[in-house]
Write a structure and sequence with these properties.
Length: 362
């Protein structure tokens, strides 16, 4: 049987083509978006499905065609076969091998597909409500105080302890209060169709924020691990889950010179102790969202970026390679740039400035 792909019907219904040959992309949702800049409808060409995490408009190839053309869903296949000039045919033979036309089977929307990331305002509202329902364990509070934070600053930053139980109860409460969970990394559907939160190792939850203070995503600083201490709260691979991205965090208003370091927590500490504006990438090899922040600070008067990654970058070849890529990005963006060097017995600039503050030299 000849099967029909979403790629076959794109020119027939007038939706945008995938950018740069991508197999998964977003377009304005015809049911809930109010303008071309809003793009909540995810088109998945690999699975031949579509889904809007906000209004739940979803389906397969025939559903998409029926909606955009007003065709009766029952007769869509026959209409498309005629419009595309296709006809069903039985097996064909070549020598002794039986061959069928190679077309992926079109199937309806499935519960195990990954939802596209929802908008920043929705993520911020949901994450803020989520954090407000949690507390900060005493050992985590003491850890943050020992790094240079004050009690007041800990509260302002919104740091909390990752729960180890009650995941479904938290999700249910958020949903009952009207917060949207679809397309918010960390949340997904259980087998019975209810929302829950991904189970992550106990640790400190660290919000990563936009220039206007909105929470883009949340990192977990996991307890008692040596490798992979920081992980993004994510529900990738879960039913109706959503993957986290490697967001860039910024704290403080743009100034002529801005510091660039690794990790939201480190940036928050440096800013709190020194007052300097700090940008934080998840790692020197994770620069996907850095350009947007660089554009923002440049538009607000920043002319120089000073990098201040952990001192071990001098010995780590992978970090050094990432630093060269970063330097190329800064040069292309027309920033003057340099690197801070400090006493190597203090691994991070956050450790060093806290030491200087305690010694009264800062």
């Amino acid at each position: 049987m000849v099967e029909i792909h979403i790629t076959d019907i794109i020119p027939l219904i007038g939706i945008p083509d995938p950018p740069n040959g991508r197999r998964n992309y977003n377009i304005p949702c015809p049911c809930c978006d109010n303008g071309p800049r809003e793009k909540h409808l995810n088109i998945n060409l690999s699975k031949d499905v579509f889904c809007c995490p906000r209004c739940h408009f979803s389906g397969g190839v025939f559903d998409l065609y029926a909606f955009y053309t007003g065709t009766d869903r029952v007769g869509v296949r026959e209409v498309l076969m005629e419009r595309l000039g296709l006809k069903d045919s039985g097996p064909q033979y070549e020598g002794s091998k039986k061959k069928r036309e190679k077309r992926t089977i079109t199937r309806p929307i499935l519960q195990d597909i990954e939802l596209p990331l929802t908008d920043i305002d929705t993520r911020h509202e949901t994450y803020s409500a989520f954090l407000s329902k949690l507390s900060l364990a005493s050992d985590h509070r003491q850890n943050l105080l020992s790094r240079g934070f004050s009690e007041e600053e800990i509260q302002i930053k919104g740091y909390k302890t990752m729960p180890v139980a009650g995941f479904s109860a938290i999700a249910k409460q958020l949903q009952s209060e009207g917060f949207y969970l679809g397309g918010v990394p960390g949340f997904y559907h259980t087998a019975d169709g209810s929302w829950t939160l991904t189970q992550e190792k106990r640790g400190i939850l660290v919000p990563a924020r936009t220039p206007d203070g909105k929470i883009q995503g949340i990192q977990v600083r996991r307890d008692n691990v040596k490798k992979g201490k920081f992980r993004w709260l994510s529900s990738v691979g879960k039913p109706d889950g959503c993957k986290a991205e490697t967001w860039t965090h910024i704290v403080g208003n743009p100034t002529p010179t801005v510091l660039l370091t690794e990790g939201p927590m480190k940036a928050d500490i440096i800013h709190y102790i020194t007052g300097q504006t700090v940008i934080a990438v998840p790692g020197v090899n994770s620069l996907n969202h850095l350009q947007d922040i660089l554009n923002h600070v440049r538009a607000h008067g920043t002319t120089k970026i000073m990098t201040c990654f952990d001192m071990d970058y001098l010995k780590n070849p992978h970090v050094k390679d990432g630093y060269h890529n970063l330097a190329a990005m800064l040069a292309k963006s027309e920033f003057a740039y340099g690197t801070y060097i400090w006493d190597p017995q203090y691994k991070g600039l956050d450790d060093y400035v806290w030491h200087c503050r305690q010694e009264g030299t800062l």
